[in-house]
Amino acid sequence: MFELDKLVKAVGDVIASLVTAMGLGSAWVTTVQLAVAALVVIVFAAVVVLFLVWWERKVSARIQMRVGPMRVGWHGLLQTIADAIKLLQKEDITPTNVDRGIYFWAPIITFVAALAVYVTIPFGKGLLVSDLNIGILYILSVTTFTVIGLLMAGWSSNNKYALLGGFRSAAQVVSYEVPMALSILGVILFTQSLSMGEIVSQQTKFHQWYVWRQPIGFLIYLVAATAECNRTPFDLPEADSELVAGFVTEYSGMKFAMFFLAEFLNMFSVAAIATTLFFGGWNGPFLPSWFWFMAKTLIGVFVLMWFRWTYPRLRVDQLMGFAWKFLLPLAFLNLLVTGFIILLVK
Amino acid sequence: MAAIGINHFLALSAVVFCIGVYGMLTRRNAIAVLMAVELMFNAVNITLVAFARYVTPETATGQVVAAFTIAVAAAEATVALAIVLLIYQHHRGIDVDKVNFMKW
Amino acid sequence: MDTISLVFFALAFLTIVSSLMVVSSKNIFHSAIFLILALFGVAGLFVLLEAPFLAAAQVLIYVGAIAILMIFSVMLTARISDSGLRHTNEQVPTGLAISLGLLIVMLYSLWNTPIPVSEATPTGGAGHKLGELFLTTFVLPFEIVSVLLLAALISALVIAKRDGPLGGRGAGNETDEKREMEQGARPGN
Predict the structure, then answer these.
(1) Does A65 touch chain C (CB under 8 A)?
(2) What's the predicted TM-score (pTM) here?
(3) Structural domain includes residue C66
(4) Of the candidates C115, C98, A31, which has an alpha carbon nearest to the alpha carbon of residue B9?
(5) C 22-51 residues inside an 8 A Cβ radius of B
(6) Residue B75: inside a domain
């Protein structure tokens, strides 16, 4: 009913006619269309992150039997904006002995890597910025890019706590990428295509959702994704009580805000990927497609937040042991059994 | 300027390969030498994929060989870096000019 | 100049400048970061060459694993006294001459070799064709590469173990090794 795909198409046509009227070729038309779409997605991601920061505080408050921010706006909705303004005003302290170039680029790289995933996420029918034919592989490769930002931050800070935090964080993210990729592969065995739009279009009915066919794959993905976002129970790298603040120890002001926002962007994108791969994406009866997508993704984000405020933290050797000795063999087994069953059924 | 053809890609690959050769011959830090070797691998990959695109576009054989090259480079980098770490443990430094214990 | 040429020259510029910075940077960590930039440039060139799967695999494997491995090694082997040492050995003129000579020879032979360019539209970059090739024509190299990767994994683990590759007490303690040779290895050593 309130589908946005016609609106998106109309805007795209308007842009195309404007660019052609200026005398530029068709490559420029595509470029400008993609640029505008990416800009819209970036603004949307920023708004969503602001909402998520508020929601995290409310969820954590209610789980801990308190109320959370209540003063700024209705039930504290504008609290995040107030916090953002405060962080922007803070002095940007750069310690003397840091490696300046790398110190400057680390938060930018982490933020850009977290944001680049949003290009291939299907937000609704016709609301996909670019349906790459290697969609999910692109997402996997871009998420490995955040590790570089972490390592740069840890190394350039010239601080042993930051370095240790960077090491641990990088080791954790790299270790949990492998079971995550394998669990995604299990879904790809069914879909025969890497494109995100294609994966969503194959799950139109409730019984076609891939979570029923790949339950273990979904659980592996859930655990690995929690570790990818550096969330409890896997958040030793930024453990507030252990390593000062992990790899962001020496960052203040806007740079710290970028790391913080990158974590929430990661959380939302991980939940969005889980929705697309396992829970049918934007498919759903009656209500508009973007509503279903947001509802499913926000439930996923809520589950991630729920984990954080319920479980204690894993020690770093338990964390690594769990990834390599349990999740990885389980993911391989899942892939093997799935392939075998597909072969038998055909 | 004419359209981009295979010669452009091959020339670029030759330049990157020679930069890698220079790095391999002149750097002292063992890890820097390994980085130069990775540059050479990448130059070769560009050549392979350029041939796959321009000379045999119907089959993707060049891309398959490039994928194998990437895998072999990964294996080689792993073992080489493990050896570098071992040398560091023994020798407290990774200057390739000084790793000459087996010379007569 | 049309868009493809523009994109090609931008990517080529990025790759070449990053490679130059890799081999000439005094700080080894900066070299690693420039290597990552060069690898991204190459991935972009793969996309330009209608090989998107290979571009994603390049980023996933090279940037996401090999470059991170190199950064880890840099972090584990860097010492404060390194900043005073020279970063190139005394063979810079010879190295420069050799690489420039090689470049001239390669470019000359490239210029004079006619390459049979086919005008067909490229297929097979996105996955299906590649997958078929891996499992039909190239199945033997595929299996051999898996064994190779397993061997590399095991050998890296064995070589870099804290106890040293032979189970002795690390690689740095000569007195321990001499004692072990004289008295024979004992359980618990």
Answers:
(1) no
(2) 0.89
(3) yes
(4) C115
(5) 22-23, 28, 31-32, 35, 38-39, 42, 45-46, 48-51
(6) yes
